Here is the input.
Amino acid sequence: MKLNIIYLFAIASLVAASWGCNPDNFQKLDQRNWELVWSDEFNGAAGQVPDATKWTYDIGTGDNGWGNQELQVYTDKPENVAMDGQGNLVITALRTGSSFTSARIKTQDLFGQQYGRFEARLKTPYGPGLWPAFWMLGANIETVSWPQCGEIDIMELRGQEPHIIHGSIHGPGYSAGNAITKGYSLSKARFDTDYNLFAIEWDRDKIDFFVNDFLYQRIARSDVPGEWVYDQPFFIIFNVAVGGTFVGFPTPSTPFPQRMTIDYVRVYQKAN
Here is the structure.
């Protein structure tokens, strides 16, 4: 269902440095007309689980075919993923002794889209060993192996660096430690202390990465050293991992519980 139209005119930056925002590099993007085609505003009652018509779950340990040496067990229990009654969905990572639980929700087989704007407004958790992410996988993952299906990481964060997020793509010939990636840093703030808007705008020739509508990275088809696998629908994933190769492991001082609080997620396509 087509819900409404927004008009987005951003002052944005293509930043040459590894991360950060350089005012000298600001440039205007063309005016874009976006049409909202799918969203979740998370306006349910406190304790209500995600809408089953929009979300499903990955269940089990972090290494159930996913690798990364993660420590958590993903569940569908309300203590790990539920609405807070204030317009947010909260994914909570818990520690019980030496064990950890969390949640990983996805729109696989329920919603996917090829091209458009994908955005979420959220607050991250923090602390050594925490790994929150807002990301996407190619809908053909059941028929081809990763990374042939493609992966777009709209936002992931190392909990020990709560002022830096990373945007990346993984595909054949440029995955894992060889992913195409760039960080974006807040100079006087942290991503766990306030809401921020994370987005990509994706078309047949490029993927643009934004924080609060600042463009900090553009990956063009011509930048990819292997096959461009981003001409198919992708589905959305939110999760909070504990431990793993990207972040290392929790320390005795890592505070728990830790929460990723998601205000909304919205997907747009170009208006005719």
Notes: Residues 1-27 have pLDDT under 50 and may be disordered. DSSP finds no helices and 21 strands in the chain. The two ends are 15 Å apart (CA to CA). The first strand starts at residue 4 and ends at 8.
